[in-house]
Automatic annotation (TrEMBL):
This is Ribokinase. The gene is rbsK. One of its GO terms (molecular function) is ATP binding. The keyword Acetylation does not apply. It is found in: Cytoplasm. Gene3D superfamilies: 3.40.1190.20. Its cofactor is Mg(2+). It comes from Roseateles aquatilis. The active site is at D250. It comes from the Bacteria. Catalyzes the phosphorylation of ribose at O-5 in a reaction requiring ATP and magnesium. The resulting D-ribose-5-phosphate can then be used either for sythesis of nucleotides, histidine, and tryptophan, or as a component of the pentose phosphate pathway.
Length: 324
């Protein structure tokens, strides 16, 4: 079934990707293989990498945002649609009648660590011809929780239309050359970088190995490192008391692309995205944890004196230390 359409308006960010309903149990720790853990609180939250990133772009980034997504004809779809609408995201919905809405089962530990298992459901039904018209779209943000052939087709269509293509290569998997060749900005964590680029002596060597104009690697509590052309940029993480890191990476991706689409240079976009991700870690849930643009602004203003360079982060990434 073709998606229901909302007409693009102005310079807009489009997210194409997954949407899930998250089933979250809090426990003392994440179970090891074969271990049963007695949990405590249980709740459901709208999630999915694509939907989380769309909410982050719209809410934390404050830019016009649309999303292409597939949902089942079941009750689980309603809270996802409501969350996206509440964030101001215009939706292009592919309604799937023979698959359930995607779901994720999350165990969240008291140390803010998590273990996640995803059942794709309707997400697996997104096809290449579902991509909406790209008129008025400046950036297309993609992930890998939907079929890779469709992701590749979306990237190629956007590249041909002059749209900036951003890929969050998660979950980790080897990427076809046809997809990488159509990507302008690649966002990965350390594990994903290792899969995409292969083992390397340093992070900077791995980043330099990828033939993508801009590559960003997130490093959790350390911060992030980016390569743009031959230049490297570092952004240390902001100190916080973490509660739930479930959507931190997705919040980073959505806020980063929103900042870039709004005209920020890469260092400024990295700082805004890091602030948004830090705030998300202080709250429970996926989309429910995403801060507003005003909250990100206030957070950054209160931390304006925090250094933008950290020798420990530089050394970890394999970059020369700053002069004494």
């Amino acid at each position: 079934m073709l998606p229901t359409m909302n007409a693009p308006s102005g310079n807009t960010l489009l997210v194409a990707g997954s949407a899930n309903l998250d089933f979250v149990v809090r426990a003392n720790h994440v179970p090891a293989a074969g271990e049963t853990v007695l949990g405590r609180d249980f709740a459901t939250f709208p999630g999915g990498k694509g939907a989380n990133q769309a909410v982050a772009a719209a809410r934390a980034g404050g830019v016009p945002t649309q999303m292409l997504l597939a949902l089942g004809s079941d009750a689980a779809a309603a809270p996802i649609e409501a969350s996206l609408s509440g964030a101001g995201v215009l939706q292009h919905i592919v309604r799937v009648t023979d698959q359930a809405t995607g779901s994720a089962f999350v165990c969240l530990s008291d140390a803010a660590e998590n273990a996640i298992t995803v059942a794709p459901g309707a997400n697996a039904e997104l096809l290449p011809d579902h991509l909406p018209p790209l008129a008025g779209i400046s950036h297309l943000l993609l992930q890998l929780e939907t079929p890779v052939p469709s992701v590749t087709a979306y990237a190629q269509s956007a590249r041909a239309a002059g749209v900036t293509v951003v890929l969050n290569a998660a979950p980790a998997q080897a990427l076809p050359a046809a997809l990488l060749d159509a990507v302008d900005v690649l966002i990965v964590n350390e594990g994903e970088l290792d899969v995409v680029a292969g083992p390397a002596a340093s992070l900077t060597e791995a980043l330099a190995r990828l033939a993508v104009p801009v590559v960003v690697v997130t490093l959790g509590a350390r911060g992030c490192c980016a390569r743009s052309g031959g230049a490297f940029h570092l952004q240390p993480a902001f100190p916080i008391d973490a509660v739930d890191s479930t959507a931190a990476g997705d919040t980073f991706c959505g806020a980063l692309v929103a900042a870039l689409s709004g005209g920020d240079d890469l260092p400024a976009a990295l700082r805004r995205a890091s602030a948004a991700a830090a705030l998300a870690c202080t709250r429970l849930g996926a989309q429910t944890s995403v801060p507003t643009r005003a909250e990100v602004d206030a957070f950054l203003q209160a931390r304006a004196d925090i250094a933008r360079h950290d020798d420990a982060l530089a050394a970890y990434c394999g970059l020369a230390l700053s002069p004494a």
